[in-house]
Amino acid sequence: MFLYKFFFFFVLFILINQPISTVFHFGNNFFLTLVKLRHGVSFDLLAAAKCIKKSTAVDYFWKWLELLHAKIGFLIKFQDRENIFRIIPPVFRSSFPRLTAIVDCFEIFIDSPKNFMARAQCWSNYKNHCTVKFFISCSPVGHINFISKAYGGRASDVQIVRESNYLSCRYHVPGDQILADRGFTLQEEFATACGVSFLTPAFTKGKKQLSAEEIETSRQISSVRIHIERIIGLLKNRFSILKGTLPIQTVQHITDEVNDRELASIDRIVQVCCCLVNLGESIVLKD
């Protein structure tokens, strides 16, 4: 339902002083973009439904995606600490009173690149497929506050965090708490860089068994950390374009290389989808 409301108000905002015929024309093209993101249908089907050429449908989609990225990209940002601590769910506050973020990585399937070097960089042993990987962070109430650029599926979670500048004091203040999976072995780096408590479930490596305290702490971390996986699931289920296998032209459009753009096409698609998720209701507070 929120997509329809967003569609209505966004078109009115962009075309506030335009003739009504122009509003309908651009509104239809914008709706085509939302359908592509929401359902992941092919451009052939969109072109047939709109009675236009496929190349025209492709052109409409990328132009409106650029506009969406420019107009609503500000929705992905860290909230003020006061607001986070004011509305943080009580069940979180009792265990993690200074919690500001929950982090994880997710992957999206892509077609195999023809270039062997690119194929090797995109191959994911975990998914057994060529993928692009993103690092994502959300607040305790389910607001996506950080999304990295796309990396090849071969990149490790730790590498992406380091190179995405998430360790910067720009995003964190001393005393913050961040929850992550045990694969993110970055406790010392976060503590050194910005004085943040980076909390992960305990490792059993080198131990016969965990102590009772470690088991309880790990249980508490896992029970809260699960919400980032719910956010990732919501992102993919709400925007089916992220669930299928994306063609290379969607991952890196030819105009990106020609214009030497900083962000690839897949970066803009994922960031716009994250912004639209932030416009919806929180699945954490809803519980």
Please describe what this structure looks like:
This protein has 14 helices and seven strands. The chain is of the alpha/beta class. It is globular and about 65 Å long. It starts with a helix and ends with a helix.
Helix coverage percent = 40-55%
Helix/strand structural class: alpha/beta
| Largest beta-sheet characterization | 7 strands, mixed
Record field, number of beta strands: 7
Query: What percentage of amino acids are in beta strands?
Result: 5-15%
The total count of helices amounts to: 14
Radius of gyration: 21 Å
How much is the average pLDDT?
A: 85
Indicate the low-confidence ranges by residue numbers: 18-24
| Gap from first CA to last CA | 19 Å
Oligomer: single chain
Instruction: Sketch the topology as an H/E string, one letter per element.
Output: HHHHHHEHEEEEHEHEHHHHH
Instruction: Estimate the global geometry from the Cα principal axes.
Output: globular
Task: Briefly characterize the structure.
The protein is an alpha/beta fold and 287 residues long. 52% of the residues lie in helices and 12% in strands. The model is unreliable at 18-24 (pLDDT under 50).
Topology, element by element:
Layout lengths: L1 H13 L5 H20 L3 H8 L3 H19 L8 H7 L2 H6 L3 E11 L6 H7 E2 L4 E10 L5 E4 L3 E2 L4 H7 L13 E3 L7 H8 L2 E3 L12 H27 L9 H4 L2 H5 L6 H15 L3 H4 L1
Parallel strand pairs: 1-6, 6-7
Antiparallel strand pairs: 1-3, 2-3, 3-4, 3-5
Helix pairs in contact: 1-2, 2-4, 3-4, 4-13
